[in-house]
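Hi again,

Forgot to attach this to my earlier email, sorry! This is the prediction with S-adenosylmethionine bound. I've pasted everything inline since the attachment limit keeps bouncing my files.
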Amino acid sequence: MGWRRRHADSAAEPVDFSGDNPLLLEFRARPEPTPADVEALTAQYAFAIPTDQALAAIQRHSPNGIVEIGAGTGYWASLVHTLGVPVTAYDPAPPMSPDNKWFHSSAAWFDVQRGDENVVDRHGDRTLLIVWPTRDQTWPADALDRYFAAGGDALIYVGEGPGGRTGDARFHALLGGCDHCVACTYGALDLACVCGTRPIWQQRALVALPHWPGQHDDLYIYARRERPGDPLAPRGR
Ligand SMILES: C[S@@+](CC[C@H](N)C(=O)[O-])C[C@H]1O[C@@H](n2cnc3c(N)ncnc32)[C@H](O)[C@@H]1O
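Structure tokens for the complex follow:
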């Protein structure tokens, strides 16, 4: 289909799934999980399974701390915070909000504040963390635009590649993951045209994650792409 997940200039770290966080232990204890297992553990913890390597990568790329949006239960936020990284986490429906279809009955792992993608406007100094942004909604792409406009220069995304369960076509186009517009190439009228969407983020590194059967999420690290004449100077990372 022409989608690219891994870029030639993006280093993939050697695969290392070590760690002892509770979700990783639950994952290891279930070599053949049922769909009900996956659903229950996702609701209790998170959609993606952290490893020590993934958490260390987040720590390394967050010298000024993390702002996480769409944080769900705050499971990833809590683990990153345990490493000594300042973390502020937001979700428009923090647990146990009845408005959150995944986490309405879940206990929080971290103090997740109420807020949507607009909060990134005031956190351009921090690294932005987005884990499993909702499929085919526009807010994840809007967050990338807003964080860029706020001067943000480091972005960590955990999820699937273009056409997967996370983000929409514009989100992946902004990340530089599309080499053509699927809507126009295949005449797919139900997909958004991304011909005019310029990539503003450049993939720098990839950390493989363990995942449940049928899922294909990994952790990706991005830096902003500077435009000629861009008045916002990067933070020199
Ligand atoms: C698929 S869940 C992922 C949650 C968590 N990051 C995880 O991996 O477990 C998507 C989350 O995005 C949140 N969300 C929905 N609309 C949002 C918006 N406009 N801005 C930020 N987060 C949003 C939902 O409330 C939900 O908790």
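The chain has one domain: 11-224. The domain at 11-224 is CATH 3.40.50.150 (Rossmann fold).

That should be everything now.

G.
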